[in-house]
Write a structure and sequence with these properties.
Number of strands: 3
Bound molecules: zinc ion
Shape: elongated
Helix content: 55-70%
Number of helices: 8
Distance between the termini: 41 Å
Oligomer: single chain
Radius of gyration: 19 Å
Length: 203
Amino acid sequence: MVNNLGICNNCGAFLDSQACPNCETANSVRTFNIYDENVKWAVRYGYQYRKKAVLRAEQKEGSLHFCLHDASEVLLWIGGAILSGITWDLLKLGVKKLFAALHDEGRYDSLDKETQEVLSEEKKLYEFYEYVEEYKQGFINISEEEYKYIEEEMFADFQSEEIGKLGPEKYFILSRKEMIEVHKVAYEKSQIKINRIVRRERR
Ligand SMILES: [Zn+2]
């Protein structure tokens, strides 16, 4: 897979070029970059952690915090397409084609379960579509409890990212006072990052 991908507005084919091989007529291809930070965040916080948050709220899962694995390229691909603004019908069509292509290329079986479900079950795909759309609109239709959980996970990710920039050899020789300062700065940077990605009205 390549970075810049697109989906044909005419037939729904997922493409890695600017022209659709299926459509003879010139058509508009919607492009997106699956390695864009916003695509990653939409899938990770808008979908993966949202699902965890819903399960927790329904008390089907304990209160433990998890560090989730990174989303597959296929999920990033679909997430990128949704952020680019395609309709549900076009997405459904596109994912059907993607599903068939992955099967033909013998790559379907090596995908993780989460990705396989989104590719093969319309209900799961719709949930993915809905959650990414809701993320895009600033986490709408989410309860305070669910949002709070996702926000905590964002803080944890962004703080360890900031602290990680120091490198372990530096971090472990810090004095207690310096360590507190490092955490404070990481916290503030995380807050800025969260405010940037979540355009949500604070209630
Ligand atoms: Zn086409």
